[in-house]
User: What shape does this take?
Amino acid sequence: MNFVEEMKRKAKEYQNSLVLPEGTEERTVVAAAKIVEEKLASTVTLLGKKDEIEAVAKAKGVSLDGITTINPADSEWLDDFGKEYYELRKDKINKKTGQPEVTPESAREYILKDPLSFGAMMVRTGKADAMVSGALSATADLLRAGLKIIKTAPGTNTASSCFVMDTHDKKWGKDGYLIFADCAVNPTPTAEQLADIAVDSAKSCKELLDAEPVVSMLSFSSKGSGGKLPDVLKVQEAVELAHKKAPDLLLDGELQADASLIPEITERKAPGSPIIGKVNTLIFPSLEAGNIGYKLVQRFAGADAYGPILQGFAKPISDLSRGCSSDEIVVTCAITLVQAGAKK
Assistant: This one.
């Protein structure tokens, strides 16, 4: 399996709709044209003033044929989006002022001024199936729009991320591919959050790798070998909670990395583990461990890392690195469109 080709094949098959809020950003405009050319989406929408988007397209030598442009200020949806946002936030109180966070007027103004929130509202209301941003904006901005408007999916209270790791060695995971989580969002997850991350990462494994998920929850300890330290107990509690959330999920922990991946070591450190020799999804106990872990595998093993792929949201949104290329935007969009197809 070539992961990128497979994501593009599936996106082309699903034909979901995509909104790109950073519609005047040049790499995004180029990527939108490529997405249309490769027929990866049913519709592609760029947010921004039409003349500014056209100027960028002309400067980059790409066509806007087949691309929809929407200026939020002129949109027929703006009033409805403002009302929807007010309903979502009307009970929230500003901690600094003690006053309501929004009024009907300020809600409309907020949606107007924040393209990410306008795009998120398009996804929430079904006017787009997926949203991708981050070439200009910070991850925190995207997460804020997602959590306020799209919300987390039923059964989870945690937005998180995963990476698809292509090790180029078929002895690992699904034909060399593994899911690593969470490597980008939650710095110090609680036991409850780790359980959510495990269950959501299992869904990502199924959606993105076409594999039955087999999950290991990682630690520096295997089955209590680390004693009663808080970090060990947290992962043990997370394992119990994950089993309650998803009783049919093949999952074990707490386990060290070698006990997760090497069958003979699994037998020594966790005899009888149901995941022996089958793990394709690794859940790290903290962002620190996950971020270091995926980068070590990427650099030392020459693995390809695709992500971060956001998960746990009711509808799919994705983040970009601000240093991304237009081709990387296309790949992220394809992945997000596949997530949208899997949720339908």
In short: The first helix runs from residue 3 to 14. Residues 31 and 330 are 6 Å apart (CA to CA). The mean pLDDT is 94.
